[in-house]
Write a structure and sequence with these properties.
The chain is an alpha+beta fold and 171 residues long. The protein has a single domain, classed as Gcn5-related N-acetyltransferase (GNAT) (Aminopeptidase). Helix content is 33%, strand content 33%. It has helices at 12-26, 33-37, 41-53, 106-120, 135-143; strands at 3-6, 60-65, 71-79, 89-97, 125-131, 147-157, 160-170. It has a 7-stranded mixed sheet. Strand 6 (147-157) and strand 7 form a beta hairpin. It is globular.
């Protein structure tokens, strides 16, 4: 049985492990390998602990927990960062599942919980950014009702520009 609950500080190491292994699995061949090789669970745990102690206002972190009490997924959402005047748009900042469990329904369950949380927080729309080359994630979000809205941006990873496309979905 899978449950979704609010993340606690005790979940930080598990979330960092999921995030780092998730990046290395999902972004291989998209993000420069030296950038991925430089990511460590230890460094991410330190950074995430600091962030967790001083969260941004309105940000919610959720974790998916399996029947054995292990954290197997993580989602983070909050106000949309692109238009500070909008109070009805939220943004999914992150959604990761332990790579060995991809395709098991954890991501779908976690995304549904994110949608419920966004709705409870008064939002009527969720936006998110996906690396253009991450076709697996793009298909996942499209199956969940997200559509590209035409916005694109690029992030720099070790001097390499990597493009992202923005998706959105009404709640």
């Amino acid at each position: 049985m899978l449950t979704v609950r609010a993340m606690t500080e005790a979940d930080v190491p598990a979330v960092s492990a999921i995030r780092v292994t998730g990046w290395k699995a999902a972004y291989a061949g998209i993000v420069p390998q030296p950038f991925l090789d430089g990511m460590t669970v230890e460094a991410d745990t330190q950074q995430r602990r600091q962030y967790f102690r001083r969260p941004k206002e309105g940000t919610t972190n959720l974790v998916a927990v399996d029947a054995h009490g292990r954290v197997v997924g993580w989602g983070c959402l909050g106000p949309f960062r692109g238009d500070r005047t909008s109070t009805t748009m939220s943004e999914l900042y992150a959604l990761y599942v332990q790579p060995s469990l991809t395709g098991s329904g954890i991501g779908r369950t976690l995304l549904e919980a994110v949608h419920a949380q966004a709705h409870a927080d008064g939002f009527d729309r969720v936006l998110l950014w996906v690396l253009t080359g991450n076709t697996t994630a793009r298909r996942f979000y499209e199956r969940a009702g997200y559509v590209p809205d035409g916005a694109v941006q690029a992030d720099d990873y070790d001097g390499v520009s990597v493009s992202e496309v923005r998706y959105q979905r009404a709640l």
